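Example 3.
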Amino acid sequence: ETGVTQTPRHLVMGMTNKKSLKCEQHLGHNAMYWYKQSAKKPLELMFVYNFKEQTENNSVPSRFSPECPNSSHLFLHLHTLQPEDSALYLCASSQEWENSYNEQFFGPGTRLTVL
Amino acid sequence: GENVEQHPSTLSVQEGDSAVIKCTYSDSASNYFPWYKQELGKRPQLIIDIRSNVGEKKDQRIAVTLNKTAKHFSLHITETQPEDSAVYFCAPPGGGNKLTFGTGTQLKVEL
């Protein structure tokens, strides 16, 4: 699969579990994003990384911990989540962060269910 | 930050009719106005965008119009087809490439 890939596609976890979501982009982009998409709510930006450096943290609880080892990979580490964290988590990438004209390319998402 | 409102939240049209979705934003410095389409169970994808130096842009059956004075832009779909059924999001950026997504419009094209 080309473009932006995410694994796993589906994840069920208990509130005490620790899990990680993975995103990889094959587009040569420099900016990567994590979004949360809940039912009947707009996509919420969580984190932005530009050239591996975090540039935005949209007041996300510390139980979500992002990691960006290089411009192609982005992780979201999860621990002690709450049932209200159940949602579709989307990764996206764009050529660069500074240019507001850049199209964002989304991955297929990870459907997370917290029991 | 950018405040974005999108209307209507749901829209049902007959195949072949036109559909219009409106997005209102708050940041007068916004200079880029994209629309994303998300089909059921799929990822959002950019379908059309416009920069602030033009008032209208067309791409086959879809068009976007911009009114900077009133701070709103609209998505127009003509000759709607069943494959146009999806959720449409406006997403003006609030700084850098930080898109602020609207609440979405569920478009249903009925046969």
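The two ends of chain B are 41 Å apart (CA to CA). Residues 24 and 72 of chain B are 4 Å apart (CA to CA).
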